[in-house]
Amino acid sequence: MGRPSTFTQYKTLLAKDIRQEFRTREMLTSMGIYALLVIIVYGAALALTANGIDVMKMGGGLLWVLIVFTSLLGLGRSFAHEKEQGCMEGILLVPLDRSVVFLAKATANILFMLAVEVIAVPLFYFFFMSGEPVAPTFLAIVAPLVVGTVGMAGIGTMLSTITMNTRSRDVMLAVLFIPLIYPLLYACVTATTAAIAGTEFWMDFFVMPLVLACGYDVVMLLVCWVLYDFVVGA
Fold it and tell me: Could you report how far apart the first and last alpha carbons of the chain are, in Å?
């Protein structure tokens, strides 16, 4: 038998991660519960000040805080099984391109993060914005959510690999993750807030930040893909 193609290796690794998650449901369950708890904390924190703030203008920032910290919890667990059960050593013994491991794991993380967002975003809207008039541009928040999720999953997968063997890997992941995604986070918060509030400066506050976020994704994902062979073999 010849060596499987790169795409076949990618599909095999991605299917492994998806089957493993649907068998244990550890990442999806923990991320979903954490997202619900953050929404409850938001409710307690904003309960006495709801009449004095404009939730529609703060909605983008609050929503992305929810997504970032929920994603951190999932990304910190993305290599848990490979580390605890020694699977990573077995994968590295297979004659395959190491960047395929990155692409498969990043794709799995994107799918899991989007699955949680499908539940968390409607809950956030129901609890905090359902009583406000909806702007006609509201559904445009899908674009920054997808772009931001792709970037965070790629960077988070790289950093999760780097911190996998450290003693305080969850703390190190957060310390490295937040500064690196700050440009992406700022652009996505701006675009999301513009979509929610329906700002008249559509080009300045939605289109341009979204273009910058897409450019950031492309550059950072290429860097992670190129450097992953070195990182995982170090």
Answer: 30
Q: Which bin fits 205, alpha (ψ -120 to 50), beta or left (φ > 0)?
A: alpha
- 163-198 in b/e form (b: 16+ CB < 10 A) is bbeeeebeebbbebbeebbeebbebbbbbbbbbbbb
What is d(CA 222, CA 154) in angstroms, rounded to the nearest whole number? 10
Residue 132 phi, psi (nearest 5): -100, 155
Spatial distance between the Cα atoms of 194 and 138, rounded to a whole number of angstroms: 9
Query: What is the pTM assigned to this prediction?
Result: 0.91
Q: How far apart are CA 103 and CA 77, in angstroms?
A: 17
Average pLDDT for runs of 10 along the chain of length 234: 76 90 86 93 77 73 94 84 69 77 93 94 88 82 96 94 82 92 96 85 84 96 91 74
Phi first, then psi, for residue 189 (nearest 5°) are: -65, -45
